[in-house]
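Hi support team,

I've been running sequence recovery on a batch of backbones for a student project. Most finish fine, but this one hangs at about 90% for roughly twenty minutes before it completes. I'm not sure whether the input is malformed or the queue is just slow. I've pasted the structure tokens below so you can try to reproduce it. Let me know if you need the job ID as well.

Thanks,
M.K.
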């Protein structure tokens, strides 16, 4: 028990208090530094995030091992909505997400959003009300997809090789409903539009080759 991080301890204890006996933690359930196991598990991401009862997000922790529960400061301030940031894959594929913020819990599911302070501003934030079910049949789905690709092309993932597998789960969900041919980050029926992109800021060259260009 002492060998795992405080965040994993908190998450496991929290799940047990809810009388739930199973938890999936990526860095424990995927063999680290094993490319073959990583590839095998990456292909299952859509099922992994859509199957659980809910996803726990420790988004206010200072680092990955800081724990779910943060000390509440003497001077209380409104918690910014940016603290709700998390990867698109988890946010869109999960049926329900429980965010552990600095001063409260926030619950988001496919039908509502609620938080302990009852702040109305959270409910008005479109990025966190939007779920897969909201836009999978939307005529502007292509615009939403381009937003997801834009987010995943930011240098925020630990390794460049994570990018395509990370959005593959969302693509698999869309394909299950629409059966649109998927081509490694693009959709065949909108390929010309998808290729019409440009770089707004100075780019950077990846350290290793990720895919043919």
């Amino acid at each position: 028990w002492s060998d795992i991080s405080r965040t994993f301890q908190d998450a496991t204890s929290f799940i047990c208090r809810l009388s739930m006996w199973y938890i999936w933690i990526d860095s424990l359930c995927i063999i680290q530094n094993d490319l073959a196991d990583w590839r095998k598990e990456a292909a299952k991401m859509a099922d992994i995030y859509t199957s659980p009862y809910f996803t726990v997000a420790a988004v206010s922790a200072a680092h990955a091992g800081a724990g779910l529960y943060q000390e509440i400061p003497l001077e209380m301030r409104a918690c910014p909505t940016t603290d709700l940031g998390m990867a698109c894959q988890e946010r869109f594929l999960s049926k329900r997400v429980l965010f552990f913020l600095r001063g409260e819990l926030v619950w988001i599911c496919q039908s509502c959003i609620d938080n302990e302070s009852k702040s109305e501003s959270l409910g008005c934030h479109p990025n966190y009300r939007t779920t897969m079910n909201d836009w999978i049949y939307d005529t502007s789905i292509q615009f939403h997809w381009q937003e997801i690709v834009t987010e995943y092309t930011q240098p925020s993932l630990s390794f460049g090789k994570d990018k395509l597998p990370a959005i593959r789960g969302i693509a698999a969900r869309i394909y299950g409903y629409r059966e649109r041919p998927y081509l490694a980050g693009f959709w065949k029926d909108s390929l010309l539009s998808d290729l019409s992109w440009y770089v707004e800021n100075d780019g950077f060259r990846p350290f290793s080759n990720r895919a043919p260009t």
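--
Follow-up from support: It reproduced on our side and the slowdown came from queue contention, not your input. Residues 74-85, 123-129 have pLDDT under 50 and may be disordered. No action needed from you.
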